[in-house]
Amino acid sequence: MGCLFHKGRQNASVTGKEDAKLKEYSWDKRNAVNLKDYTVENTEDGEVLKMPGSVNGQQFVIQNCKNTCIYIFDHANTVTVDDCINCKIILAAVKGSVFLRDCKECVCVIACGQFRTRDCRKMDIFLCCATQPIIEASSSIHFGCYQLFYTDLEEHFQQAGLSVFNNNWSSIHDFTPIEGENNWCLFPDTIRIQDYISLPASEELQRMNTSLLEEKSVVPHTWGPHKTPTGESCLVAFFSDGQQVQRAKAFINSLKIENPDCLLLMSKEIQMQQAGAEHVFKTNSYNSVVQRGLVVGLQCSGPNCIQSCQKVAVRIATGFEVFTAVWFIAY
């Protein structure tokens, strides 16, 4: 059925718009992505090194590799790792999910928003994960805390939307548990990540100050809630004032020197609501403060923990403008 008053399209020569350009849209201007640049596959006894800027937030695929070292020193969107055997993999900062499928005897250093394995076995994972890690139909999976540093890593965390303080590496959920058996475990306190994976001898990496040492890691080493050393426990909170992240990091480093037996069990960086603040701090005095922005919380435990934390906090606060941004709760 036509339109009674339809005039039809006028000829361009009549309208005088013969040279008019078609309207361009943003999706017409996007550069074509070469998927091969973001894929490592069918590699055996090799080494693959991706430097900062080479991935730049794209999706990445690793598949069908054997006896290969793969280092992604950049931020990515999501990463899938399929059918890899005896590989060593570093994924510096992944915004979304990292999914390992049908892999065995691999060592991985991974920071991501979500982590999952399926049909994997004999895997050693050093993890920083913003959410609860999940394993499914997997066995002999060992977990430890992520440790990595290079010059651009903190910026890559920010670009991936990750916080160095939000790490649930030890809170594993097993979708397919077997009664009487453990499909996963946490590494003992004595292990060193350097005994499981090493960095390539590259001048580029040396210029980036790349390191696997715990004391240099962008992500603070946490022991997890399962670790309950004898002694006191306390929560130290750093309220938002533009320097809370720097103060929290300075606090962690100073506490290691002040009292090595006082351990950092967990860390969080969250936006607190008034109800949550009242529940944690047992007062409404901080309701206005928590609305300023993100709060960094550190759960510490060990002998003389409270006194040590108070002492370090006073020392740290003298170097910053706002001393009231540090708060304690002992338990």
Automatic annotation (TrEMBL):
<dbReference type="InterPro" id="IPR039093">
    <property type="entry name" value="XRP2"/>
</dbReference>
<keyword id="KW-0547">Nucleotide-binding</keyword>
<keyword id="KW-0342">GTP-binding</keyword>
<keyword id="KW-0472">Membrane</keyword>
<keyword id="KW-0519">Myristate</keyword>
<feature type="binding site">
    <location>
        <begin position="96"/>
        <end position="97"/>
    </location>
    <ligand>
        <name>GTP</name>
    </ligand>
</feature>
<dbReference type="InterPro" id="IPR012945">
    <property type="entry name" value="Tubulin-bd_cofactor_C_dom"/>
</dbReference>
<dbReference type="Pfam" id="PF07986">
    <property type="entry name" value="TBCC"/>
</dbReference>
<keyword id="KW-0343">GTPase activation</keyword>
<dbReference type="InterPro" id="IPR036850">
    <property type="entry name" value="NDK-like_dom_sf"/>
</dbReference>
<protein>
    <recommendedName>
        <fullName>Protein XRP2</fullName>
    </recommendedName>
</protein>
<keyword id="KW-0449">Lipoprotein</keyword>
<dbReference type="GO" id="GO:0005929">
    <property type="term" value="C:cilium"/>
</dbReference>
<dbReference type="InterPro" id="IPR016098">
    <property type="entry name" value="CAP/MinC_C"/>
</dbReference>
<dbReference type="InterPro" id="IPR036223">
    <property type="entry name" value="CAP_C_sf"/>
</dbReference>
<keyword id="KW-1003">Cell membrane</keyword>
<dbReference type="GO" id="GO:0006892">
    <property type="term" value="P:post-Golgi vesicle-mediated transport"/>
</dbReference>
<dbReference type="InterPro" id="IPR017901">
    <property type="entry name" value="C-CAP_CF_C-like"/>
</dbReference>
<feature type="lipid moiety-binding region" description="S-palmitoyl cysteine">
    <location>
        <position position="3"/>
    </location>
</feature>
<keyword id="KW-0564">Palmitate</keyword>
<dbReference type="InterPro" id="IPR006599">
    <property type="entry name" value="CARP_motif"/>
</dbReference>
<feature type="lipid moiety-binding region" description="N-myristoyl glycine">
    <location>
        <position position="2"/>
    </location>
</feature>
<dbReference type="GO" id="GO:0005525">
    <property type="term" value="F:GTP binding"/>
</dbReference>
<comment type="similarity">
    <text>Belongs to the TBCC family.</text>
</comment>
<dbReference type="GO" id="GO:0005096">
    <property type="term" value="F:GTPase activator activity"/>
</dbReference>
<comment type="function">
    <text>Acts as a GTPase-activating protein (GAP) for tubulin in concert with tubulin-specific chaperone C, but does not enhance tubulin heterodimerization.</text>
</comment>
<dbReference type="GO" id="GO:1990075">
    <property type="term" value="C:periciliary membrane compartment"/>
</dbReference>
<feature type="domain" description="C-CAP/cofactor C-like">
    <location>
        <begin position="29"/>
        <end position="177"/>
    </location>
</feature>
